Amino acid sequence: MKRYKRVLLKLCLLFVFTTVSSSIPELMPAQIVEAAVKAPTLKETKKTLYLGGASYTVKVNNLVKDAKITYASSNKKIATVSKSGKITPVAEGKVTITVTVKQNNKTYTLKETITVKKKVLTASQLYEKCGPATVEIQVENTESKESALGSGFFITENTIVTNYHVISGANKIQVITNDEKTYEVVSIEGYSEALDLAVLKIKSSGHTYLQPYSGKISVGDKVYALGSPRGLTGTMSDGIISTVSRVVDGIDYVQTTAPISNGNSGGPLLNEYGEVVGVNTFVIKDSQNLNFAINIKELEKLDTSKPVSVENYYKEYQESRIATLFKGRMQEDPVKSQSDSDQQVVPDYTLLSGTVTAAEKSDFYRITVTKEGWFYGIIYLESREDMKNAYLGIYDKSGRRLANCYENASYNSVYTIAYIKPGDYYIGVYLPDGYTGSDLPYNFIWTQY
Hints:
Blueprint: H1 2-31, E1 41-42, E2 46-50, E3 56-57, E4 60-61, E5 68-73, E6 79-81, E7 86-89, E8 93-103, E9 106-117, H2 123-130, E10 134-141, E11 146-154, E12 159-162, H3 164-167, E13 172-176, E14 182-184, E15 187-192, E16 197-201, E17 222-227, E18 235-248, E19 251-256, E20 268-271, E21 276-283, E22 291-295, H4 310-325, E23 328-331, E24 344-346, E25 350-356, E26 362-369, E27 373-380, E28 391-395, E29 406-408, E30 413-420, E31 423-430, E32 440-447
Parallel strand pairs: 2-9, 23-25, 24-26
Antiparallel strand pairs: 1-4, 3-7, 5-8, 6-7, 8-9, 10-11, 10-13, 11-12, 12-16, 13-14, 15-16, 17-18, 17-20, 18-19, 19-22, 20-21, 21-22, 25-32, 26-31, 27-30, 27-32, 28-31, 29-30
């Protein structure tokens, strides 16, 4: 009986195992579940970038091999984003970068907030960044053999901003860059004597350039001046803005304590972010830290729609100078030119033409100067011998002669040049003692140019 039970038990167990074993192949697949694919996420949802700083590329986690990604900026004026997700800051502010991911037949929309700020630079960082954009400008008038030196800075990769008075009257202009390479200016894109600004262009491109300031400036802001004072190229000085706006003769100037000297004219005045605040222009002599730069916003008024070659600029300059010098013409009044008390009065910018005779020996005039400017006078002689004693002179109220006369043997003439300040002056034309020759013509004029 016991043996019968054991056999029966074995048969039952065999039946159970056989039944279970035959069902296993059908039950196993239902127990194997694939791991769920994680949804894509951004590594960062907030990021601060700095203008002029290192670039940044959006990073997305959990991407599959064939995922398709697109990027969009909510405001391209603040930051742009490339097809590869590289973000370029453009201006201060906040912008949302939207990342669209398509994978596993699903679409995911991710957003990252980008804050763009300006980065305050140390003095050494600022010089390293802005120094290469600053240039020395050498100008020459090959006819008069006059030369001058100033500063400037790249505002695009091949155009340079400077003061107009740096290039005034030049028929040759050269730019010496920070790496000591020399380039000829091929055109003047625009210039204004009234604004005292000029934009020059060279053929070479790819140069580091500066950006005008954005936002606003305030008294007390840190500023730096770059340029070539007294020809010492690569010089930097610092100070603060002492007055945001000082309007002189219709031009808006930024007043600063950053020291500048002759040769700094045309160079940049920079804020602590390396942006151009102004174009360094002039100082008030015999004073303490009264330095001025034309507000860079004034550059927007400059017409650059009609560029000219340097050669054609010089022709325009000559024509305008002649027109300015000779706004009026006057002939001598023979009666008044002989009077000691009722001299003929000659207005500003008026060319006086007269003749002194052997019988008269001299003529006299009076001028009233309203602004600082130049007096030019010349008397044409018959022979070189007459140069020894004949002259045309300008005198102050006390009778002191203000300038010497100089001989010009090529034209048998004697001329005088004097820089004079506002006030009343007297003009005298004199012939040498014993002169018996023919009547001698002369001209003189007062002008600001």
